Queue: 2 jobs
Job 1
Amino acid sequence: MKTVYSADQELHDVRLEVTSGDARPPYESPARSRAVFNSIRAAALGDVVEPDKFPLEPILAVHSQAYVEFLQRAWGLWVEECGTELDAIPYCFPHRGLRQVEPRNIEGKLGYYSFDLSAAIGEGTWRGVRASANAALTATNLVITGEQAAFALCRPPGHHAGRDIMGGYCYINNAAVAAQSLRDNGFERVAILDVDYHHGNGTQSIFYDRADVLFVSIHGDPEDEYPHFSGYACETGEGQGAGCNINYPLPLGTTDWECYSGVLEDAIGNISTFAADALVVSLGLDTFAGDPIARFKLQTKDYSQMGAAIAAAELPTVFVLEGGYAIDRLGENVLNVLRGFEL
Ligand code: OKP
Ligand code: ZN
């Protein structure tokens, strides 16, 4: 299968995230996509192609105009107003009972459009984020034009980003952009399977009231894990979308392949029942036992089986990279999923 990747994605390279009482370099770094790119090239999985250029329309199909304008302007405003070249990062949020209005001040805007301190903005962030979304759109076009599957080597990831909010290393929701693009190009019912260790709260929120896009996610139980306020099994969709959102929260320390595989099979069964005609996989590899920020116990060999299980859905499939922070094993783990799918 083909991979879509651009070195422009590495332009997003911020200096810090705030987590566990510390300000530190983000786990989500350009080294991640570089490692996956190198593994794919070395293994000759298939051609690696540059993303095409796209207008903003397919991004604006799932994100608000004001939010996208904010993402484009934030760095410039930050430098102008704060007089610093350190990363733009929020510190104050419009929580319960506060005014939900975008302020004039850039630090206010950062809080207004963020839900955590894990999505800093640097000089190259917008270009990197745009290139990552374009990778998703290009991979989607490969599937629209008849490929059985394609791999968008997206980075930064996207599944925590909502219609008008960033967080968790995510700015533009690449998987949502891909799913909507499939909908706008002839596919009637699209399923999104999110296998990242963290719940894809952004993707869930974007499609929560829609009957034409099924969102299915397997992740660490939000009672105990980030993003803490989304990902419960009782979140099943609303309005037209009632029943079209399925969450599988799993226990942190004990989830190995034996437990995971049965859940994955159930998830695929639900995608078949939904009668999807295309699939987007939010492919996070932070379910790996060696991941530094996550607590599932999947092994490298298990990812081949994960790929095979996904192939059993027998759907045109766009793989979109999400998380995975054990950088020295990330390429191998990704390859196993893609190869397991192709076998
Ligand atoms: C992004 B993706 C826990 C901090 C969590 C953010 C994690 C974002 C994960 N102490 N930090 O879903 O892989
Ligand atoms: Zn994750």
Job 2
Amino acid sequence: MPVQLEVQIESQPFSSISSDAIVTYVFGDKEARMDGVLAELDRATGGKIKPLADSGELTGKFLEMTLLHYPQGLAAKKLLVVGAGKPDKFSHAELRKIAGAALRYLRARGAKSFAFIVHENDGTPAAAQAIAEGLLHAEYDSDKYHTERKPAKVMERVSLAGFPAHARSEIDAAIARAKIIGESEIWARDMINEPSNRLTPRMLAERAEAMAREAGLEIDVLDEKRIAELKMGALLGVAQGSAEPPRVIVVRYRPAQKKLNSPVLAFVGKAVTFDTGGISIKPANNMEEMKTDMSGGATMLAVVRALARLKPSIEIMAVVPATENMPGGRAQKPGDVQIAMSGKSIEVINTDAEGRLILADALCYARKLGATHLIDAATLTGAIVVALANVHVGAFGTPREFLDRVLESARAAGEKMWPMPIDDEYEEMIKSKIADIRNTGSGKGGGSITAAWFLKEFVEDTPWVHLDIAGTAWRDDAKPWSACGPTGIAIRTLIDFAMRQ
Ligand code: BES
Ligand code: ZN
Ligand code: ZN
């Protein structure tokens, strides 16, 4: 889906910008800081802003919205000042949210265009990219299946102002990058929104095929026959309870010039298009949310989709195992033993711990295809929601240095991720009496860690990071800078990570 919103650089003086609105942000905590752009706008409007700060209405508190109508001295019809919070807590992550919140706030009030003015320190390409990413992220709303839609309010154009003229070409390039990233994020969020009757494993593979064709990527979709030939017993065990056949989607990007012995990075994403829990069936309450259990897979496909256009210098692949988890007459049952592609035997204690089963074979297959580094993303455990709520992604991995590099990208991308332990003590908890391993932890607690340990059994010595996005892939309520529904979490981080290599 193409992004409708146009983002460009504005070079006119603030007072003659004729967009529907002008937006800037003000630092502060209890008292707004009236320097820089604020002082300039205060002068231009003949002193309309300072009195608001003096009276305590304008404080600079993060995401506080102060709206002036028909400000004198400005060609724009509205002036919006967004709180930026304390300067020492300010980074591109805040800037991204401020830009996004401004878009959603003004769009709700009928504005179709605005100019976003940055402070002098933020006149950099990286800031422009963050702002454009925030705008494109905030612009998204899904209203596909209402037959009677309200006339949509659309933001058509946003210009960025306050950037130095000499950096123009770098800033244009930064905005172009943000567009590629934002568009791929939307592509993933649309898929995550789809109900399971409209996005089966086969349909997911078809979307991946269309994407790969358009992006010029290699694709190989394994059907149930090839999956069986490869002896992916863990994936097949999950899929056997469903009338829908499974797929394994492999999308590959190769750089124009590949250096000898350079790394091959595989992005492996869980795509359970619906997780009923299988025979260990889930309660009815909120089960509809399990249509989003393919978020990790959508994320990884979106990442390679963007990378096809951004052209990193290393080889990349996405490996996405796709299946339903259903309690059909042929479904696997608690106590069943499955043999994974790697040859390891697995005692299936709980059929609802299916994500780790399908990832076991996908991680093994990625290594077989030549991956030297593995990153997986999965809505894997309810336990990560207990540990980190809906705030942080749980990030596991070895060696620590590899995990730290992913966390560094997360910081740059403004996506919250927190390192989780994966010490040897937890391995004991997935030992089985009758097979090599069991698919749930024995004993109490540490559910997201034993799940990660299960994956580690199939990664062996390959550097690996596992992102548990169960708490962060979906948002029940909208935020000022983001719609409710799929968040697109980890897409920006992983694109950033690939581009740094
Ligand atoms: N898809 C779920 C995890 C999940 C929970 C995703 C909440 C999004 C929101 C996963 O397959 C699952 O059911 N995990 C079980 C594992 C348990 C049976 C060991 C869980 O976390 O309860
Ligand atoms: Zn499950
Ligand atoms: Zn699941």
